Request: fold
Amino acid sequence: MPPDPRLPASADLIIGLLSDIGWAALEFSADAAKRRTSRNRKRAGATLRPGLDTPLWNAVAARVRSHLTKRGTQANLARHLGLPRQRVHDYFVAGSQAPDAERTLQVLFWLIDREQPGAIKVKPAGTS
Reply:
């Protein structure tokens, strides 16, 4: 799909990343539907935990894991997110937790920056 001339280049990058994650999530959810049983159903409104019911998060985590192979990358991501390194391990390696909304957005921007350096320019808060 050609870039939309009405959108800034960074918006096209975000849309492309979300599209890739969406397709991966469809694959994860198809696998999850095959394995799901009625006794695994959770109560309506319960907090989602990473697993079969979170295909979008599974796709994001898989994409981040591919960048955590170089020594020190996990610690650098933890510093970027303002978290202990162990929390990053819990999010992306162990898969036992998921970040809040703000940190999830930070992770998505980190991914874009890792895959296409300098593609996104974010203005500091409070500037016009």
About this structure: The mean pLDDT is 81. The chain is about 55% helix and 0% strand.
